[in-house]
Amino acid sequence: NRLNCFSLDVTNITESDLEKIRDFNPTHVYYFATPFIFQGSKNRFDKKIFKRFKEFYVDAFEYIIEYILNINLGEDRYVFYPSSVAINNTPNDMLEYVEAKKEGEMSCLRLEEKYDNLKIYKPRLPRLETDQTVSLSSVKNEDPIAILEIIRSMNS
Prior knowledge:
By secondary structure, the protein is mainly alpha-helical. It has four helices and five strands, in the order αβαββαββα. Strands 1-2-4 form a three-stranded parallel beta sheet. A two-stranded parallel ribbon has the order 3-5.
């Protein structure tokens, strides 16, 4: 087995980036691209913020996955697309994030319907302790190590 990774700005994918993807020809993709999450205002939906989230969670995601699927048609591909439990109980200051994540989940379903050789694992993860969730106030964050078991289950 071979593991490889490289940095990719999903909002500015270059021909060089596509060449790296094509050369590597990944069978498994772990899609963690995200902008800063906590940027909304309470009880107010901002179309500009939503558009930014959608760019990451839907547009760039679809572009990358379809590109990978077309490198070697018919080869099985497995994708880890982390969704969020925020969808279950929308925080009033994360309206744009939640709507974009919902659209991301729908995008996953559309892609799976379109491609027989694609399996997307899209668990709704709890709030994990990351550089984005660090807070001076007392907020419950889950241990990010727990995600390893979730990722392992993707391969079974």
